[in-house]
Amino acid sequence: MAVAGDGGNSRFDRLMPGPDSRVRSGTDAGIHAVTADRYRRFAAEADGRCRLYVDLAGAVADDDALLAFLAAQPEERRQPNLFLAAVRWVAGVPADGAALRQAVARHGAAIAAVMRARTTQTNEPGRCAVLLPALARLPGPLALLEVGASAGLCLLPDRYGYRYGGTLLAPPTADAPVFDCAANAATPVPAALPQVVWRAGLDLNPLDVGSHDDMAWLETLVWPGQDARAERLRAAIAFARRDPPRVIRGDLLTDLESLAAQAPAEATLVVFHTAVLAYVRDGQARQRFADTVARSRAVWICNEWREVFPGWADSAPPAPHPNSFLLAVDGRPVAWTQPHGQAIDWFG
Questions:
Q1: Is CATH 1.20.1180 what the domain over 125-346 is classified as, yes or no?
Q2: At 146, is the secondary structure helix, strand, or coil?
Q3: Phi, psi for 144 (deg, rounded to 5)
Q4: Taking the CB of the first residue and of the last residue of the chain, which one, N or C, has fewer CB atoms within 10 A?
């Protein structure tokens, strides 16, 4: 199972069960019903975060023409995030359901082409703020290997700055982005940035920080109205272009070991990922990945939806928010985090 980046916004774009009997039957009505259900769940999740996407997803769920358009796409390409981003890429942000229907009616072929060519590869650099407390506790120097790295913006945690409430951890250079993160009193906010001597990413479809189109696509995946996220992304891209991290094309189940072997032996190797393993819908495949990391000499930092490894979540205190990620180190839960790095609640 290969993984390219992450969707980063919707849990319903990931961990979706295999097609139910309505889809397996091959009937248009069955496919439409499953797709409508998917978009209604997406609308429920977007509520309180993006009013426009609530409205647009609801319009899709109630519109036979839009459902027919989606049914004509491969099942894995019917994701709400991917469809809505493709519409924005081709026709701009639709103001409402009527404008969405009009955009698809006029530009359906172009939208479908984008959906088939692109994937949801959100690369949220603000997540480094919730990874940093775990990274800074490890013996240095560090060698970082990110799975599902997209453009590699999360491979630079030692080059950004961070503000945890009233505590500022200044970046090494004055022009680097500074990310804000609300941290509870138990969070081991580091006093200094870790030393990183090697870094590499693995992705099914790496994105190039030097490519205008690739980076424009990343910004298109940021939901409308989330201006602070878009500004943060642009700042991280501009900074990363000066010394781009290495991201190679590969599959997390077959190529991890060979890439990890390239890390310097004198460094603490860290394999990490965030909002990635949920795309590996087969639980056995996720376990094979976990076993591969366990066989290596790496420290494993996992920041994922609680559904990825539900047994871990069962041993953790209640999550402060229904959309929380669970941060675990070598399989031991240590904190709840917010999906874009906005907050961390440490308990480990």
A1: no
A2: strand
A3: -105, 130
A4: C
